[in-house]
Amino acid sequence: QVQLVESGGGLVKPGGSLTLSCAVSGFPFRDHYMSWIRQTPDKGLEWLGYISLSGSLVSYAESVKGRFIISRDNAQNSLSLQMNSLRPEDTGTYYCARSRALFDHWGQGALVTVSS
Amino acid sequence: DIQMTQSPSTLSASIGDRVTITCRASQSVSNWLAWYQQKSGEAPKLLIFATSTLEGGLSSRFSGSGSGTEFTLTISNLQPDDFATYYCQQYDNNPFTFGRGTKLEMK
Prior knowledge:
heterodimer; A: mainly beta; 4-stranded antiparallel β-sheet; globular; B: mainly beta; about 50% strand
């Protein structure tokens, strides 16, 4: 069955960096756009960005553009979210999800806490 | 960005009731509107896409309607498993935006 499993969450200080990973199985990863979405107390569910099949096209929400980087490794069936210059308002649960805009499968989420 | 406004934010209902949740978009999203269900501690789950198309395997007690800027999710004959938070999402325009959710609680 389709599985998306995030890892890499944790506590980080403001200004710090963290990288989340999403391991995918149960469907042909290289045939699907992938996205990252987060859920925060302040803004609720917020789409962060998507990456195309080959990784050549990436689109970001304005709130994370220039700070976050989405990448993928089709050989390893994995998706990554590199987060830099983290702020307290980035605290929340981060989900990887299948597709560019309509999210039919989600991971279980990774909790990221930005605090000194 | 397109703003998605859901109402009510909380809805109290009983087993067997029929309930309706409304979602309004700040500009037309055509029929590119989805609904998700989220239970506590879990990821959102896609229920309905393209305004009214039910995701495979889900109960026909869930239905969606609308177009343009106003949409509704209706749940008939409420069951215990339906008590959760429901979100609408537009996928017509980047950035793809979600409503703030409607928490359906047991009366």
